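Q: Please design a sequence for this.
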């Protein structure tokens, strides 16, 4: 493990008001999105869509890193150039999703545990050799009656910490993603309570597994009321609840917090990120960045529709959303 290199890479991922583009949807998830728009659910269609994203002119001005899926990191452009090389040439750091998904947790109805630790050490070595310099693992926490349980929170936190330690051993910055889902009727304050408990537990496990905090990035949810909660707080109230929760739970040694969008619209995710930076930038110990998927990609996907003639217009839409989030990091009001 090259400690200095890990620290440098982590800092680069949140430097210059840039953020991460999460293009690591699994094949089934990608196919679902394609099906809604009448796009063929084939490997070639997925390859063409990912090529559209990574060849967007100027993307590296606003995006620091791209999180890939296993299929994507092995793909090439029609002239045989590996996607990883295209990404590096654009000034973007390649990353890779390494968990294999959240599965039903035995003995815990309604709760999930993320799998993928078996064989992870060897997979990380392979991804590093292919050019990846960071990795991502997502844990899923659901709020509902009687859940989340301590057992679910602790099991997922330990898996995140073991993954993060293996990443650093392999020379990869670890993106640690404990996502408290926004589905449900819970209030903003309930989400804040659960998010703080989850984050405190995650960092306790990271400490126990000897993960170097300077060589990781946290990818949390924003503190939000449930989608079906009758009270939906303002952008500023969400910003305050989110950053105050993080100030209580996230050590200052962590270089950056790259929020997930979690199903928010692109505009709302950007507005909330902007409010956080506007209100807290002067006293935040970490960079407040973004690691968005649909909140950047969705307009481009809807324009593309699987048609070559729409590529340029779709790329312009993608670049616009990336630029909006870059601007949100500046927090200029």
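A: Design:
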């Amino acid at each position: 493990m090259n400690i200095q290199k890990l620290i440098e890479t982590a800092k680069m991922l949140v430097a210059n008001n840039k953020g991460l583009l999460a293009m690591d949807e699994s094949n089934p998830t990608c196919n679902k999105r394609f099906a809604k728009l009448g796009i063929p659910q084939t490997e070639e269609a997925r390859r063409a869509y990912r090529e559209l994203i990574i060849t967007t002119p100027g993307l590296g001005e606003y995006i620091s890193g791209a999180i890939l899926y296993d299929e994507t990191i092995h793909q090439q452009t029609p002239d045989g150039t590996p996607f990883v090389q295209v990404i590096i040439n654009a000034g973007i750091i390649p990353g890779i999703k390494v968990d294999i998904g959240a599965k039903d947790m035995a003995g815990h109805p309604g709760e999930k545990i993320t799998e993928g630790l078996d064989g992870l050490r060897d997979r990380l070595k392979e991804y590093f050799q292919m050019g990846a310099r960071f990795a991502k693992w997502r844990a899923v926490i659901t709020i509902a009656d009687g859940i989340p349980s301590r057992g679910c929170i602790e099991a997922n936190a330990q898996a995140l910490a073991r993954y993060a330690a293996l990443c650093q051993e392999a020379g990869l910055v670890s993106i640690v993603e404990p996502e408290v889902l926004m589905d449900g009727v819970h209030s903003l304050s309930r989400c804040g309570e659960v998010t703080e408990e989850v984050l405190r537990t995650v960092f306790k496990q990271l400490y126990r597994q000897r993960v170097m905090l300077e060589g990781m990035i946290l990818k949390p949810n924003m503190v939000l009321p449930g989608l079906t909660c009758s009270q939906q707080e303002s952008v500023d109230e969400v910003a305050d609840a989110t950053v105050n929760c993080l100030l209580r739970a996230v050590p200052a040694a962590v270089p950056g917090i790259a929020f997930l969008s979690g199903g928010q619209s692109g505009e709302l995710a950007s507005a909330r990120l902007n409010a956080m930076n506007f209100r807290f930038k002067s006293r935040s110990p970490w960079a407040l960045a973004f690691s968005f998927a649909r909140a950047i990609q969705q307009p481009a996907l809807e324009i593309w529709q699987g048609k070559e003639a729409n590529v340029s217009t779709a790329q312009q839409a993608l670049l616009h959303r990336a630029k909006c989030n870059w601007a949100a990091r500046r927090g200029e009001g």
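Q: Thanks. Anything notable?
A: The two ends are 41 Å apart (CA to CA). Residues 41 and 274 are 35 Å apart (CA to CA).
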